[in-house]
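Quick one:
INPUT:
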């Protein structure tokens, strides 16, 4: 399980999903977003893309606790932008944080 806190605009490290095929990955967010937007991003062949749900990029502006169907070993990160004095607690069970990312 990976978890942390975002106190400024920027990204978490890359997280690699460890859930089994067909299992959902939970993304939990709480705290103050400071007027910012948090995007869930995916890395494919070294390139960063938005993570889509039903054809729409996943972005959040308030606390959330949602499930996403991600294949095993998918690399994701959370990126906050446009925030003033944010304090966001995040947790993604079923992932490990890749060191040095």
């Amino acid at each position: 399980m990976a978890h942390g806190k975002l106190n400024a605009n920027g990204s978490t490290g890359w997280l690699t999903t460890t859930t089994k095929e067909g299992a959902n990955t939970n993304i939990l967010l709480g705290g103050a977003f400071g007027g910012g937007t948090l995007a869930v991003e995916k890395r494919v062949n070294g390139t960063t893309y938005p993570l889509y749900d039903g054809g729409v990029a996943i972005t959040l502006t308030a606390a959330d606790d949602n499930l996403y169907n991600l294949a095993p070993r998918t690399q994701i990160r959370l990126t906050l932008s446009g925030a003033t004095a944010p304090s966001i607690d995040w947790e993604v069970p079923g992932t490990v944080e890749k060191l040095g990312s």
